[in-house]
Amino acid sequence: MNKDSAVKIIKTALQEGRKSLSEYEAKQVLAAYGIPITREALVEDRDAVGKVARSIGYPLVMKGCSAAIAHKTEKGLIHVDIRSKTEAVKAFDAIMAGLDGYKGAVLIQEMIKGRRELVMGMTRDSQFGPCIMFGLGGIFTEILKDISFRKAPLEEYDALEMMQEIKAHKIIEAARGMEAVDKKILAEMLINVGQIGLEIEEIQEIDLNPVIISGNKPIVVDALMVLK
Fold this sequence. Notes:
By secondary structure, the protein is of the alpha+beta class.
């Protein structure tokens, strides 16, 4: 783990007077702690779109990336299933126009396919400190509130127990032609989210949603980090 690189990102954001990280910055913090994220690149220059898109590989997802905007979907800043340079450049232009004065760029990322979505995160409680959350992700997170909590630090058995505590726990087992999720990777992700909370006190909240299951591997597709 490269904690120093994660701390540097957060210090820069705080020096700029920001209350949150951009999605790209949040994922760089996750990657520093060995948490699997989408292959992606931040692009500010229209001329670089084709080269970056080709290096990541189609199909792509493109998003407006700004620490000032938490909810990108409502603002039309997410374009999915982009399959050519022409489509990518068109999406880039639309997103930059949609940022509408906000400081930001365009995040170009691989499109992760998977029918199962999970959520994980961290909330810093005034009494208990960093508390880790795991549950059903995507649009069902707020509707069903099917989640489990533990106080950090986590051991592997804590993480495995959390997986069994949600009502939809069978979603991580083999079903309907889908492989069982690699629980070891999932457990490590939860443990490491806890480590971020323990080691970087400036982070108040982490929200990783969705974590999409691609084959049997969980990958963080979107990330939000709120600072103290």
